[in-house]
Amino acid sequence: MIKVKNLVKKIEVDSKEKTILNGIDLSIEKGEKVVVIGPSGAGKSTFLRCINLLEDFSEGDIVFNGKSILEFKKSILRQKIGMIFQHFNLFSHMTVKKNITFAPVKLKIRSKKEANLQAKKLLESVKLENKAGLFPSRLSGGEKQRVAIVRALAMNPEVLLVDEPTSALDPKTAEEIADVLKSLANDITVIAVTHDMNFAKNLATRLVFMESGKILEDGKIEEVFENPANERIRSFFQK
Amino acid sequence: MNIKNKIFIFLILFFSFSKFVLSYDDINDLNLVEPGCLRVSTDIPYEPWEYKSGDEIVGVDIDVAKKVVEKIEKSTNSRVELKVNDVSFDTLTLELVNRKCDMAIAGMSASDERRKSVDFSDPYFVADQAVIVKRDSNIKSPSDLSGKKIGVQLGTTGHTYCEKHNYDTHTYNSGVDAILSLLRGDIDAVVIDELPAKRLAQKNKSKVEVLDNFLFSEEYRIALPKGNEKLKNLINEALAELPKNFVEERLAQHSFQEQDEKLGFVDQFRVNLIDENRWQQILRGLLITFKITISSLLIGVCLGYLTALVMLSKSNGILSKFLKFIAKTYISVIRGTPVVCQLFIVYYLLLSPLGAGKILCAIIAFGVNSGAYVSEIIRSGILSVDLGQIEAGKALGLEDNQIMRYIIAPQALKNSLATLCNEFMQLIKETSVAGFIGVTELTRAGEIIRSQTLSPFVPLVTTALIYFVIVHLIGMLMSFFERRLRVSDKS
After folding, report:
1. B58/B50 Cα distance (integer angstroms)
2. pLDDT at B259
3. If both were cysteines, with which of B123, B155, B169, B334 could B162 make a disulfide (CB 3.0 to 4.6 Å apart)?
4. pLDDT tens digits for chain A (239 residues)?
5. Considering just the CA atoms, what is the radius of gyration of chain B in Å?
6. Boundaries of every domain in chain A
7. In angstroms, rounded to a whole number, what is the distance separating the alpha carbons of residues A25 and A62?
């Protein structure tokens, strides 16, 4: 479903070239739940943001459903590849319900009525049906992230990119978020970047370890945790 | 000294004395209505000719009447008391005919109609209002003036006359300003006293000329009952003996007299706002202030928005760099110079030569000025929107223009509403300098009334109060909207 081919991203910092992503190859099948872990600065988030073109890349390609993502119109690509952010990024001037219905209605994917109905169902599924009329500032962190998840899901994406969704939340809330993702995004391909090992174990079937813009390890999550092939990964887990 | 000489001197003294004694007129021959009294009728208020100061009627005409009384006292060697009575102008002649008064003095001219029922003295003042036009003007005589734009000096006879006759009147602080405006073609003619008119025209004689006919020429005379030759002669003698420039000096004196000490507040209020429907001038000024403010605010917001977008553009193309340079220059020039200078430059140098009217010039000057400030307000408003909001919009597949319109703009507006409102308040008050180029907005309207009534308190306080109320209302409106917009921030 998603094929990443020799992905390279270089940026210029103080007129010196710096390589952020250094040849990433990765193939993800439909419905897979992949977590990307690794030390800070490994390029995890950048990689994730390349997939929906929030960042551009210098070399290589990402193929989505058999077509290079560069051939997609950005807005169309992003409608199919949703994203969840560390800081939730709910639209602060819209109510919870409007946050969920706004994009589907504006992009003419759903009628207002359909969108409202869908929002109601989605909010019920994350037990926030009584918060529909509130502005995001009235919600707790966990509630905000749940709204952000259903907002992304309201677009019926094929892929969900998840960028450190729990790092602003306490452990218990983080667990809830993992549960919500698991139950709601069951059929969807999920690629999550995280530092949260519990979250990773809770959600994922596959683990990718990145360092210095490269993938060092890629395998089933239990195997990587129990028997990391690489010394770097072992020391990372021990921290 | 011999006896002959003594007799000679005695005779001379005697005859001169006796001539003096013998030449006394008999006061009864003057046929005054009330013995020992000169009853004078006039019509107030007609400043500075006659008006009330406290309980007393004063003015240039009254000063002239006093000179007549002096003359009568001298020539009849008796005490004469001056009694001034206020009647309406149309009944002045009737008063004389019915022997209610001995003379009427009220800036009257001797029309044929009036001559049928009363006699007139020699003139004691000539008010000639000359018309200055461009040499190539199609105005050949004062009768061509109707419908034309006429410049006058604030508060002069010409000003009063033109307003009264419903000419399209434009006021200036000085005759020179009016002539400059005429030269630029903003107005079609200048109406001003004859002497300064000739002087001003002489200085620009290649371009302007004074029409041969006066717009109006009035000789002010004293009216008295028909057939009272004795009184008429005495009055004419008194007028002839007036010191040189007596009337002109009195005129100046009465024009600059402070009256508000003597007028009560209610009277001041009446004189400045009710009399001659002066409140309508304020209202008209207010409408022009609104017109200028709202139009220039619209220009300012559009211009400011575009400038902000240029400044925020991430493109590195040549066109974008060029536009950024223009925008930066625009903002720094406008913010670095006083708005009055900008107004003058727009008016005198840029637009007026192209034929733009004064109000249009003001609108453009204030609009361009406001745009520079608004652009910075909008720019910081947009920058204050969290980047995450924009990324969230992108990640949902929204188009850039949708993100701008539905995500960035509302939040930027909310963040900058208070400062935008400040700019609006500032703008309303700033438009008061439009009077510098002769736009009769609110402040100017107040100034005109002040020049007419010579009582500064009420016009100044009224205009200030109107500005205050408007700005205060905007402030309240803003708080209301802000509260509503801030609903989303409550936690």
Report:
1. 6
2. 45
3. B169
4. 899 999 999 998 888 999 999 999 999 999 999 999 999 889 999 999 999 999 999 999 999 999 999 999 999 999 999 999 999 999 999 999 999 999 999 999 999 999 999 999 999 999 999 999 999 999 999 999 999 999 999 999 999 999 999 888 888 888 889 888 888 888 899 999 998 888 898 888 899 999 999 999 898 988 888 887 777 787 887 76
5. 33
6. 2-238
7. 9
Counting residues of chain B whose pLDDT is more than 70, the rounded percentage is 92
Structure tokens at A132: 């529909």
Which residue stretches of chain A are H helix?
44-51, 74-80, 96-106, 112-125, 141-153, 171-184, 197-203, 221-226, 231-238
The per-residue pLDDT for B260 is: 43
Asked if B489 lies within 8 A of A135 by C-beta distance, the reply is: yes
CB A195 within 8 A of CB A37: yes
| DSSP 3-state of B348 | helix
**A106 vs B contacts (CB less than 8 Å):** 398, 402, 406
Main-chain phi, psi angles of B426, to 5 degrees:
-60, -45
CATH classification of A2-238, choosing from 3.20.20.370, 2.40.40.20, 3.30.2350.10, 3.40.50.300?
Answer: 3.40.50.300
Q: What is the pLDDT of residues B183-236, one digit of tens each?
A: 888 899 998 877 677 777 877 788 888 888 887 777 889 999 988 888 899 899
Contact A75 B399 (CB under 8 A): yes
- Strand partners of residue A199: none
Paired sense of beta strands B56-58 and A81-84, if any? unpaired
For chain A, helix, strand, coil in percent to 5 are 40, 25, 30
Are B442 and B389 in contact by the 8 Å Cβ rule? The answer is no
Q: Which pair of tokens denotes residue A215?
A: 């993938």
The helix/strand/coil state of B193 is strand
Q: Domains in chain B, ordered, with CATH?
A: 25-117+226-257 (3.40.190.10), 126-218 (3.40.190.10), 276-489 (1.10.3720.10)
For chain B, what is the largest distance between any 2 Cα atoms, rounded to a whole number of angstroms?
135
Q: Give the C-alpha separation, B282 to B277, whole Å.
A: 10
Distance CA A174, CA A120 (A): 23
ipTM tops 0.90: yes
* Chain B residues in contact with A87 (beta carbon < 8 A): 388
List residues of A whose CB lies inside 8 A of any B CB.
52, 54, 74-79, 82-83, 85, 87-94, 102-103, 106-107, 135-138, 151-152, 155, 161
Question: Which residue type sits at A194?
Answer: T
The candidate with the shortest Cα–Cα distance to B172, out of B449, B463, B436, B433, is B436
Does this model's pTM top 0.90? My answer is no
- A82/B398 touch (CB, cutoff 8 Å), yes or no: no
